[in-house]
Amino acid sequence: MPALTDTFTLSNDVRIPKIGFGTWQIPDGPVTYDSVRAALDAGYRHIDTARAYGNEASVGRAVRDSGIPRDEIFITTKCPAEVKDAAGAHHAFERSTAALDLGTIDLYLIHAPWPWNAIGSDHRAGNIEVWKVFEELYQAGRTRSIGVSNFEVDDLESLTAATSVVPHANQIRWFVGSTQPETTAYCHDRDILVEGYSPLATGRLLGNRDIAAIAEKYGKSVAQVSIRYLLQKDVLPLPKSTTPTRIVENADVDFELAPEDVAALDALHTGRH
Fold it and tell me: Distance between CA 239 and CA 109 in Å, rounded?
């Protein structure tokens, strides 16, 4: 499936597979291991995890056991959202690299601009301190690219004004009807790749009749149309499933939505981000 082998090119010329397999809310142990192995067997070559998910060790073991050469798999992990100082950032990175046991990280992200228990609070100074550690890790070759997650325009502007490396990616919640247009446009204008997590709105889109009507035209599922929509918007989708058949289905998106159908999806409002 070409969608699994096609790549976006980050601003530093690192190539990243256009579809990633997300592991948020997949419990550590056999469930994560089996899901990642199923994804790799299906042809996924981009796996997304985070320190906060608690499943890095199982992700790493699945990748090692797959027999696929390490340089053919793109691994993303994230520094916990509550870490806002240099020492914490160094410690988090060492814990992640040890748990994954996969060598160089391909993409390392600040998980959020604020701790999850204080959403919207001001941690600009802390983000700058953490980012300077990220820049050191990047320059040392311990991660091939660095980025952020859940950052909006103000967060990005304060970070880039005080640091040297513009984030290579921004991973945000992005799905039909909730596309964060201001942040997306800002990133696209500055060659920051937008990655879309929860491309199915954690399953809420699957019963959407408007998307279902479009899907019927193509002989595809609502999930496939929803994921394809992100690709046509130059947003990298990160679908998640623990069901092997759905893992395969979510990547079977080698079709083209007609302009009028993209416009119809643009006009839908399914929920705030």
Answer: 18
Rounded CA separation 244/36 (Å): 10
How deeply is 155 buried, as exposed, middle or buried, from its count of CB atoms within 10 A (0-12, 13-18, 19+)?
Answer: buried
Q: Is residue 212's pLDDT more than 50?
A: yes
Per-residue model confidence (pLDDT) at position 2: 81
Side-chain-facing half-sphere of 154: CA atoms under 13 Å: 7
Q: In this predicted model, what pLDDT tens digit does every residue of 15-39 receive, in sequence order?
A: 999 999 999 999 999 999 999 999 9
Q: List active site positions.
A: 53
Residues 4, 237 contacting (CB under 8 angstroms): no
Identify the H or E element spanning 233: none
Angle among Cα 231, 169, 271 to the nearest 5 degrees reads 55
Helix, strand or coil for residue 108? Answer: strand
Q: Give the separation between CA 192 and CA 195, rounded to whole angstroms.
A: 9
Are the CB atoms for 111 and 73 separated by under 8 Å? Answer: no
- Strands of 74-79's sheet, edge to edge? 21-22, 46-48, 74-79, 107-110, 146-149, 169-173, 193-197, 235-238
- For 153-177, write each residue's pLDDT tens digit: 999 999 999 999 999 999 999 999 9
Evaluate whether 179 touches 202 at the Cβ level (below 8 Å). no
Q: What is the pTM of this model?
A: 0.96
Residues facing residue 129 across a β-bridge: none
Can you tell me whether residue 82 is helix, strand or coil? coil
Among 184, 220, 192, 227, CA closest to 4: 227
- Total Cβ atoms within 10 A of residue 260: 9
